[in-house]
Amino acid sequence: MYLDSRLILRKLEAAFPSGALGGTTADQRALQQLLERWTVDGGVIARAVQLMPLDGPLVTSEAFRKDRESMGFRKFDVSARIKARPEAIVMIRECFALMETTLLADGRDWVFGGPDPSLGDIEGMFE
Q1: Measured on CA atoms in the order 30, 33, 35, 37, is the torsion positive or negative?
Q2: Which of 6, 16, 47, 108 places its Cα 20 to 30 Å from the Cα of 76?
Q3: What is the DSSP letter of 114?
Q4: pLDDT tens per residue, range 18-45
Q5: How far apart are CA 10 and CA 109, in angstroms?
Q6: pLDDT of 54-97, one tens digit each?
Q7: What is the dihedral angle through the alpha carbons of 111, 8, 72, 46, rounded to the nearest 10 degrees?
Q8: Separation of CA 13 from chain center
Q9: Which of 62, 38, 37, 58 is nearest to 49 (CA)?
Q10: Where do the H-state alpha helices sit in 1-127?
């Protein structure tokens, strides 16, 4: 069983190469990996989680919080999340601004410029 979405995508790419969504050129593969590291290691996902509505069904669900915490995620400390929100808003705005003023600035719909979304789009907008 795979719990990591990125690992699942890699396994699907390997199992069904004719329907692969990953980059086909070295530049595309490099961009895809950079976007992956940016969203995960750069904290975009963590910042997006900090912006989840505090009264939303996931945050208020004890079962969901326990499930996440059992997999090594941080506790959903409401006071810490409230303090982190301003910084999270800035980070998310910067991320979208970067995508809109660079990769998507020329009017393309998708990161790699093709007619359909790719893993680059998934990685770039995973948050």
Answers
A1: negative
A2: 6
A3: S
A4: 888 888 889 988 888 888 887 776 678 7
A5: 23
A6: 888 888 888 888 887 787 667 777 788 889 899 999 989 988 89
A7: 10
A8: 18
A9: 58
A10: 5-15, 26-40, 44-50, 57-60, 62-70, 78-101, 119-124
